[in-house]
Amino acid sequence: MTESDRRVLTYARTLTPPPGWKVEVSGTTIVITASPSTTHAHTLWLVRSQLDAHCPTGLMPSENTDLVSPVIGALRNPDLTYFRFPLDESGGTEVPAEEAAIAVEIVSPSNPENDLVGKVRDYPLMDIPLYLVIDPRNGDITLYSEPSPTGYHRQWTGKFGDLVPIPAPFDFELATDTLLRYPD
Fold this sequence. Notes:
By secondary structure, this protein is an alpha+beta fold. 23% of the residues lie in helices and 37% in strands.
């Protein structure tokens, strides 16, 4: 991590966004995003209920938890993640990114590049093994797996209605036939 990355990360940790907003950092970029829509919340609930049903012992779900990776100077806040529990608790609000088993994002219509470009770049560098991206704008679903320093090596793509093959440690097929698209 460069000194510039470190300063931005340190500064971002001091920010207190207004209620309903969240702060993320990718390198020297600070991203502030607004609260999700009801379609977003519905999609998250449908996905989480299925992941919860297949969640192995020792993993805990969390929505909007700050995942931090000082190695690459990133602080990301996925819509949903599952991480090892219990953590070595330091009393803070951040979880080391390498503890995450999966990150789930419901693409925001106002800032899709954050989920489709920035997080696709950052999450494998943060050693997050699975990244599930659900895009209610057009009904697309992408599951990234096998992270490396050069990106994710595997990518599964589908549409709303397809069964998404979620690998270990969850090991099931995620049903997407009741997911909703954003209204036009």
